[in-house]
Amino acid sequence: MEKQATFGNVALAKKMATQFGTKKAVSVEMRYSKEVRSFIRKVEEAHRKAAVNDLVFG
Amino acid sequence: MPNLDDHRKVVSEKHKIFALNQPFSIFEFIETNFGGCDSIRRVFSLARSAKAVSLILEVIPPFGIILEENEDISSKFPTYAPGALIRASFWSVPIPEADNPPLSSDNFIGYAILKEDPILHPSCVWHVFEAVFPKYNHHHNCVPRPKKYQVRVLQKILETEGVLYCQQNQLNKACAQVALRSLLSRMVDDGDISYRTINRLAEPERPGFIWGKGLSIKQMRRVVTELGFKYNDVNYDEGGAKARRNLPYQKYAYAGLESGGGALLGFTLLGRPGKHIIPIYGHTFNKDTWVPDANLAYFQLGKHLGYIPSENWTSSFLAHDDNFGPNYCVPRLYIDKKNVGYVMEIFRPGIKSSGVNAEALAVSILYSILDNHADLTNPWVARLKKWADDKSVILRSQAMKKEEYITHLRSIEDWEGNREKAEICDSLGKGLPNFIWVVEISTPQLFPANERKIGEIVLDATKEITSKKSYNSLFVLARLPETYLFGGVIKKKAPEFTPIESQIKSHSSLIRV
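^ inputs. structure came back:
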């Protein structure tokens, strides 16, 4: 059987829900994932390029 | 655990005590004893500002990492003969002339080890090997995670708190080596790092490099990595205008400060050849900063995603400039972005992800929650939703140990005086990752004026945030008024968050480290 995908630490969520009670789960469509991924790609690209031109500080 | 502070605790050979009250002239004293060294002037000037009334000058023998430095210089400059070595300590009370006067850390302002290297330029053969002075005593000046340094003065071991200032000598160290030592000495297990170690770790990237001419980016990266730290950096000479616009250096510098590791800022000096680099270790927090228009302060991650970073209320970074001395305020917008060549955000031990990325991920989770979270019965959640729609949410990221977050959670109370249940704090203490990014959520007025927040998004800082991996495992919890949201299963591509009731029903104070 295929393992169900999870978000966050489900074990912690279950433990907290068992101990303190919970209400109806809040379903959240993650609308900005693409934009975040695109931004982080820019950060990574800049990081990758940082040593191409090996500036010296002295 | 070894501690590389033998050079600070060495017993002096002789000493002299000076009263600094008028008409004692520091200018005359420095000109007579130390030539025209700007950094030494700055050290004495800081002491004067801190109302020092006594100075103890001790002649000390080279020991520990200073002895090592002399050996290294001799290996490159066979005619080198070390000069004098002075430990200068400054006091807020009169110190009587005696062999063993009463000394207390309560009256100890700071110290400097002044080193004479006679083969330096004849106009300035002295430099400050190191100095530690506490930050300027103003509540606007913030230095996250300063270090306590132990130093001997006469017969007594005393303690002072700050960030180590170090100066180059162009023999075995330049601005890059001293900037690295300033920041990394706070975090390495040995309590300090020698220039021999820095140069040895840097060597494989440029075999045979000249120590006194500095380090390249690859070398600095290697030193940081070999010492076990993670970092994030941008070379603006390579990234050009696009990187300067999309990834401003201030963002990286501020993220380094809030993670506690600090940041290196490399720039071109106007009218001078070459590139200079300085360590940034703190910031000012100016609650009355004029941020009238969200568009001016806004950080746009993507077309639909942006927020106001808390760094907008930072007027200056606190930094050392080894050419001029310790503990300067460098106005945040003073260094023209066109002149900035490089920035490195250094992560504290245990932190594997950048604050820049953590904040981006947190804002995407927050806005998604607010777009879908139908329960707006709590007025502060309703206000937050409106502020999010107006793009005026303020985010402030702090990297910390889980214990620090739990201590914070136990301590806060909302505006009505409610506190979190101890049992919730206890359970979270057992379930959180060892290191977390806590991205605090606030709004204009509430953040700068009251220094309070509405909640936070907590992310796992022990994992890297990369574009190639799923972000699903990085989320730990969101805390909003009256509610925690924990993770859950994903159904039809939408995570199902698990709500738990919180006793904190409105705003609470920001984290202070």
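The radius of gyration of chain A is 21 Å. The longest strand of chain A covers residues 6-7.
thumbs up if we can close this ticket
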